[in-house]
Design brief:
Two copies of one chain form a homodimer. Chain A is of the alpha/beta class and 407 residues long. Helices cover 34% and strands 29% of the residues of chain A. In chain A, strands 3-6-2-1-9-11-12-10 form an eight-stranded mixed beta sheet, sandwiched between helices. Chain A has a six-stranded antiparallel beta sheet with strand order 14-15-13-16-18-17.
């Protein structure tokens, strides 16, 4: 088998952990597998480098940020290769550029456009374990780029696709994908498998185990992902194409995000281009908008509500007050600095019309008021008061019987 | 003018110093010059990385050491480029590979074989200051190599040669090249200029300001070097082709190395191949031999003496006892664990037969006994007792009147 493994920064945070990862890689190799290992920067390396930058330049060029931050992974791959070499296996480290990770030119958030895997394949054919720097690639100027958030997961999946690997294992500090956050609901159960689409929704909804980009890439190329812990040998959760319609389990998991803020703009003229102007202004000023809901209250005017991360709310409010209200001739706005978003996810949902009602019942039983509702084919999200968040997660987990064994 | 500058690790050890270097570079640019800047790794970065390695592998592959250590300079170039960008100048950082530093395949001590300066020239033509990582290059496998000791100086000189620069400035933590070590002889005088050959001898003799490799490369390509301090604006010492025969100053400087040990092998059969066998054994076991002296005491047998660094003496003695004595059928050996090497250097020496006598007179006046003597066209070295070292430097500096103004 050809297996691509990815280890995050906490898995290689110090020499002891690096040796532990090396031992795991060597064992897999000695079972007769070809192994490609993608690693992130050690623990706090990236943060330390960013601290240095703050003392030098307020607004550094993105290209130079990539030049700087890509050193973090380069340190990890060299050290891991040394640890594996010390255990007697043939091994070589490769930077993203050396591994043939070709990207577009957008520094600090480049997207992978091609995998030129000739060298990597050659090293594997020569019997070596290949250690590849995650998070980085090479653009058409021969410059180092970085992939932005979720970059190392995406490197691993893209390499797995480029090499037609049998499996891509993503090692993290959790055991796998749970029906909900075990810190909020101790009865949460680890899922043995989950579909790409469900995982995508969970990833978008803040489950945090995998980045949506990586899941998307795995789905497109049909690469099975195994999400598991680097601190034990337990199997984790397999992300793959699953036909959920033949199962009783309609809802797969409950996700939450407690760091949400909400803005509502009311009495917006009901004419074309209004939404464009609002969200263009926010995007141009780097405010990331999450959910958007528009509804008509009375003739000729609309209400538009949206959520942002709490870290963006001050900037968003300034833009609304100083620019957007006048721009779109709105009547005014409301905001809530701290709300929670709780979602249920399940591929079987689309064929089960009663799921939404069941969800709202659970929340009503807890006397939880709904501020906003948004839905997609495989998830339903509600925005509720911040202090209701944890209780909502627990109630939904119970209502959909997620702690029980799957049928 | 096209000027290549090189700043060592202590000059970029922290954000304040990086900004100070940036200010210097920007000033030079604003005077209308094209500027290429070569930098080393910040202060202790390299040592910190080596510490990490020690906790992971006893005998790491050289290729992986290069992969690891080359990150140090990559961090420096990105940070310096950010600092210069923040001052409003166009700037780009380039790794050794990006700057076209092509080397042979000998990891950890590669030699530069070619400079492919197309990209660097293009960036200069586009009006940018170019910041290049010292100490590193690219070999024919597309792997990162490092140049070993003196690497960053050599990078700077090689780039100056490849770009046909007008001047190569080497910034260090000293003001320039002195007639001797000012810590030993406070009356030591900074030289305004010195010839390549004299600088080469001084570099080999432990003067420490410049690495012999860099001086050699500058001599071959006729690149004038300006050795100066990054902590002030004073002119330093220019290393260039100088015709010393028209000057009165026969001796340019006094060099010393107090960390020397000496081994003498006596009654060695006077047959071909003996020296080869002795020094091959030492070289194969990584003992660096400095001076070698052979003399005949009586018919048919020779004495061979040599010096090594004190850090190598234990290993050297073990090799002599366990292998070399039997190998060459020698009568026995003597050794001195701590001796000093003191040398006078001057291009005019070859035409002044009295110089050696004057040197020995100075040492005799101080009642200093000579253990070994070696000479070249432009230097005379003596090995003396360790405790006589400092006194010898001071006596020679006085005897050759080096503190006085040059004629």
């Amino acid at each position: 088998m050809l297996i691509v493994q990815k280890y995050g920064g906490s898995s290689v945070a110090d020499p002891d952990r690096i040796r532990r990862v090396a031992r795991r890689v060597v064992n897999l190799r000695r079972e007769g597998n070809d192994v490609v290992v993608v690693v992130s920067a050690m623990g706090d390396t990236t943060d330390d480098l960013i601290e240095l930058v703050k003392r030098i330049a307020a607004n550094p060029p993105d290209r130079e940020m990539d030049m700087l931050l890509s050193t973090g992974e380069q340190i990890s791959i060299a050290l891991l290769a040394m640890a594996i070499h010390a255990m007697g296996e043939k091994v070589i480290s490769l930077t993203g550029p050396q591994a043939g990770i070709i990207t577009n030119d957008v520094h600090t958030k480049a997207r992978i456009t091609d995998i030129q895997a000739e060298r990597l394949r050659g090293e594997l054919d020569a019997g070596k374990i290949a250690i590849v720097a995650g998070f980085q690639g090479l653009n058409s100027n021969n410059d180092i780029t970085t992939l932005g958030r979720g970059g190392s997961d995406t490197t691993a999946v893209a390499l797995a696709a480029g090499l037609r690997a049998d499996m891509c294992e993503i090692y993290t500090d959790v055991d796998g994908v749970y029906t909900t956050d075990p810190r909020l609901a101790p009865e949460a159960r680890k899922l043995a498998s989950i579909s790409y689409d469900e995982m995508l929704e969970l990833a978008h909804l803040g489950a945090g185990v995998l980045h949506p980009r990586a899941v998307e890439c795995a789905k497109i190329h049909g690469i099975p992902l195994h999400v598991r812990s680097s601190f034990n040998q337990e199997p984790g959760t397999i992300v793959e194409e699953v036909n959920r319609m033949e199962k009783d389990m309609v809802v797969t998991g409950v996700a939450h995000d407690l760091n949400v803020a909400k803005i509502g703009i009311f009495d917006v003229p009901d004419i074309p281009g209004v939404a464009y102007r609002i969200f263009k202004t926010l995007a141009d000023n780097s405010v990331n908008v999450d959910d958007i809901v528009q509804s008509s209250m009375r003739d000729g005017v609309n209400n538009i509500s949206f959520t942002v991360a709490q870290s963006d709310i001050r900037r968003a409010l300034t833009l609304v007050e100083e620019k957007i209200l006048a721009d779109v001739k709105a009547g005014g706005y409301t905001h809530e600095l701290e709300v929670a978003k709780v979602s249920i996810v399940g591929a079987g949902m689309v064929t089960n019309p009663g799921v939404a009602a069941l969800m709202f019942e659970a929340l009503a039983e807890e006397n939880i008021n709904l501020v906003m509702i948004t839905t997609s084919d495989i998830k339903i999200s509600v925005i509720i008061k911040h202090e209701d968040g944890v209780r909502a997660v627990q109630a939904l987990h119970r209502k959909f019987n997620l702690a029980g064994e799957p049928a």
